[in-house]
Amino acid sequence: MSSYVVSARKYRPMRFSEVVGQEHVSQTLKNALQQDHLAQAFLFCGPRGVGKTTCARILAKALNCEQLTEEHEPCNSCNSCKAFNENASLNITELDAASNNSVEHIRALIDQVRIPPQQGRYRVFIIDEVHMLSLSAFNAFLKTLEEPPAHVVFILATTEKHKILPTILSRCQIYDFKRIGTADIKKQLSYICEQEGIEAEDQGLHIIAQKADGALRDALSVFDRIVSFSGKKITYQTVIENLHILDYDYYFQFVDLLLSEDVSQLLLLFDEVLRDGFEGDIFLQGLASHLRDLLVCQDAESLSLLEVGENLKERYLEQAQSTPPTFLISALSIATESELQYKQAKNKRLHVEMALIKMCYILRAREVAELVERAGVEKKSPELNSPPPKKQPQSVAGRANSPTEQRKMVGKPTSPSASKPPLSDLPSATSPDHLLSRIDEQVLGERQQSAPKAVPLTTELLQVLWDEYADSTPSDLLRSAMKKARLEYEQDLLVVHVASGMIQANIRQETALMEHLRERSGKPDLRWDIRIDEQEAASMKKKRPKPVKRKNAREKYLEMLQVNPLLETLRKDLDLMPDGEA
User: Fold this and answer.
1) Is the residue at 53 inside a domain?
2) What's the gap between Cα 186 and its chain centre?
3) What pLDDT was estimated at residue 90?
């Protein structure tokens, strides 16, 4: 059987001084040992992999150590410490509450509490993941936890303190463990590399420490995996390949392309990222982190927040000096918002590409806003009150000063071949009112030149549009009613003459017909008046056939009798009577 031991177990701290990143907890526990101020129950809470169970085991070992050091650390040489290190100590009991969470398990634990230690001063019970205990188990544990025997110490550990009953929390001395810093994890990894004879690049270890997200145990697991992959030499390239992390160099290139507004190269570079197997949300997360790092580099006081390797700091500082803070804030806002909306996007690639294009034109949009603001300030100057020139050609860039055009410019690439003067060439002494009026004049002139000449609207043209709608309607009743109508057009009023109130109601409720006439005729103000033509209504009545009076059975019989008198003989022979006679 292999004798290999994972780094998390092999290099597990044996003393308080070896615990990484939890100095506030270690020092407090050592002071309690020195002053003999020990609580009967401790609660260690915090994220996973930060040393809660490790500190609990060290404290349990120190409580029964026969000869503590001057720093009040366990000696690791007495019989009690040796027994503990060999997992043979009868005074220390570890219980996993995730699998022993019932009332029966707690009752068995209470029975063990009554037995005094056979060697040493204390019996220590370490209950890991204590939040997994059931409600009944917590209630059964309350009295023993509050008043345990003098020879018993409880050490509880959990990652979810909010799930523990307040009555349990009030009976414990609580220690909050924090996430371990990237620098501390990296330092521990460097120490292990020295012990194992592994050659590792500083930036590679930094990536592993970042990937651990404050958990040293996770960092050691990743470290073991990288060692298995690359052997005795860990490089930055092997780390990012094994962990599938996008190289920092890509993000530096993206920011350079965003600042230069090179949309085509920007999209090609993003395509390369996708071909390397990275998802869009992972890219957005990395880009947002890169922009954040550039933002903290803008100020010397916040430079300590930059968590990168020493060889990358200079590169970050160099790019941060050439990047305006307003660009970073706006780009960071776009990146985080796009990341939140990424899951809802149907076309995820286009979603990320649109975010990049918006970032690409942040500076131009900012320049337009500053130009309009400057024009508003300069309007107060007396010499600016003179009327503008009668005719002054405006470029497309000039029209961009209107608020509507400003919104359109954001994220809209401009063609380098187009002959557009830069925004800085616009006259700075133009007030916003004059500028907008000149833009409106030009836009109106262009529309008048490009718009086709309007065709005068007549009754004949409206009749054509009327018949066009009648032929397309699926309703036979409406089609018949429209065919019988007569039209007259006079001054934006369409008079529709119909022969009956039923036809009038049918046409009036067809609102889509009016919209069709307005849209096709180019007359949005067109109105209609549906009138009943009395003459046509009277003629319709004359043409209408008179109702035929229905005959009863006797009248029908008499008519048949006139044609054939023998029917009367037949009736008498059969003794029949016409309806209505008794």
Assistant:
1) yes
2) 32
3) 83
Strands (E), 455-549: 486-490, 493-498, 527-532
**Which distant-in-sequence residues (6+ apart) come within 8 Å of 157 by Cβ?**
43, 44, 45, 52, 53, 56, 126, 127, 128, 129, 130
* 167 and 272 share one domain: no
Helix (H, G, I), strand (E, B) or coil at 272: helix
- Please check whether residue 420 lies inside any domain of the structure: no
Same domain, 190 and 297: no
For position 473, which CATH number holds?
A: 3.30.300.180
Q: pLDDT confidence of 311, banded at 50, 70, 90? A: confident
Res. 241 pLDDT band, cuts 50 70 90: confident
Query: Would you say residue 518 has pLDDT above 60?
Result: yes
Domain tally for the chain? 5
Domain boundary among 153, 176, 199: 176
Does 237 lie in the same domain as 254?
A: no
- Other beta carbons within 10 angstroms of residue 340's beta carbon come to 11
Mean pLDDT of 268-272: 92
The DSSP code sequence of 119-152 is: SSS-EEEEEESGGGS-HHHHHHHHHHHHS--TTE
- Over residues 98-156, the pLDDT tens digits come to 888 888 888 888 888 888 887 778 889 999 999 999 888 888 888 888 888 888 999 99
DSSP class of 489: E
| In a shared domain, residues 308 and 239 | no
Same domain, 190 and 85: no
Q: Is 90 exceeded by the pLDDT of residue 537?
A: no
pLDDT score, position 421: 42
* pLDDT recorded at residue 426: 41
Residue 130 in tokens: 């204590």
The token pair at 211 is 């990937």
Neighbours of 284 (CB within 10 A): 23
Q: Are 529 and 496 in contact (CB under 8 A)?
A: yes
pLDDT of the residue at 350: 93
Residue 284, domain CATH: 1.20.272.10
Distance of CA 98 to the CA centre of its chain: 34
Assess whether 96 and 164 both reside in one domain. yes
The verdict on residue 336 lying in a domain is yes
Q: Are residues 53 and 153 in the same domain?
A: yes
Same domain as 294, residue 166: no
Strand partners, 529: 495
379: in domain:
no
Unique residue bearing structure tokens 């003098």: 150
pTM above 0.70? no
Nearest residue to 90 (alpha-carbon basis) of 64, 55, 68? 64
Burial degree of 33 (CB within 10 A; 0-12, 13-18, 19+): buried
CATH assignment of the domain containing 231: 1.10.8.60
Q: Which residues pair with 168 in a beta bridge?
A: none
Q: Name the one residue in this structure whose structure tokens are 């055009």.
A: 405
Q: Which domain holds residue 566?
A: 550-582
Question: Is the Cβ–Cβ distance between 126 and 92 less than 8 Å?
Answer: yes
pLDDT > 80? residue 314: yes
Cβ atoms of 33 and 74 closer than 8 Å = no
C-alpha–C-alpha distance, residues 446 and 323, integer Å = 39
Q: What pLDDT is attached to residue 546? A: 56
Residue ranges in 394-488 assigned as alpha helix (H): 396-399, 403-409, 432-450, 459-472, 476-483
